[in-house]
Amino acid sequence: MLTRVKICCMASVEEARQAVSQGASAVGLVARMPSGPGPIADELIASIAATVPPGVATFLLTSETEPEAVVEHVLRCRVNTVQLVDRVPHEVYRALRTGAPSVKIVQVVHVSAPESVEEAVACSAQVDALLLDSGSFAGPVKELGGTGRVHDWSLSRRIVDSVPCPVYLAGGLRPANVAEAIAQVRPFGVDLCTGVRTNGKLDLEKLREFMRAVG
User: Fold this and answer.
1) Measured between alpha carbons, how far is residue 118 from residues 15, 71, 97, 115, 163 in Å?
2) Any alpha helices (H) in 22-88, and if so which ranges?
3) Which helix (H) or strand (E) holds 59?
4) SS3 at position 193
5) Cα 62 from chain centre
6) CA pair distance 207, 24, nearest whole angstrom
7) What is the pTM of this model?
8) Pick from 179, 180, 181: which is nearest to 214 by CA?
9) Is 104 exposed, middle or buried (0-12, 13-18, 19+ CB in 10 A)?
10) Of the residues 24, 93, 145, 146, which has the maximum number of CB atoms within 10 A of its CB?
11) Exposed/middle/buried for 107, CB within 10 Å: 0-12, 13-18, 19+?
12) Is the dihedral of CA 152, 182, 136, 114 positive or negative?
């Protein structure tokens, strides 16, 4: 099965257009975060999302964790997918199904220990997909994505084999390692930000090299 590619941290309409032109099936739009690269204003997120062609997913990366706040954020940004980068109460899923029923729900699990497998399984039946990343809750400031770090792919493979929903793999992916990552984990899709950027800007040559490596 063809591995989907999500290119994250879109900073402009032009970057989104370039990502789609190279075969991305989804683009990530990062809202306010406690740390990490790529946050842009909600108004710009909505503007970019409006230009993305049908059939390409527009992911809002939100750090909101309260049900009403998450729904309001999704509706304000007018995207078709929400990526919950933090742990959220299950009430958030129910609120989204009611308040934004056409929006797909992707829950991020930050893979750091065997317990991450249990965390993934616990929410997998309530979401449309999982995204496995390499953030951390351990420090004084939460790392909720964009770290550029690779996590333990054997744990990610266990999650893929244990859940009923599609799984995206993120965390330190780049042209040099994505083929190995796909072979080991067998994800539905892969996701990256920094791996196809130079000095913070989307690098078309790196993006083309990445897409070739994905196959």
Assistant:
1) 36, 26, 23, 5, 10
2) 42-51, 67-77
3) strand 57-62
4) coil
5) 10
6) 10
7) 0.94
8) 179
9) middle
10) 145
11) buried
12) negative
| Nearest-angstrom CA–CA distance, 130 and 109 | 7
d(CA 127, CA 69): 18
Which residues lie across from 9 on neighbouring strands?
Answer: none
Two tokens at 98?
Answer: 């009611």
In contact, 110 and 134? CB cutoff 8 Å: yes
The 10 Å Cβ neighbour count of residue 21 is 10
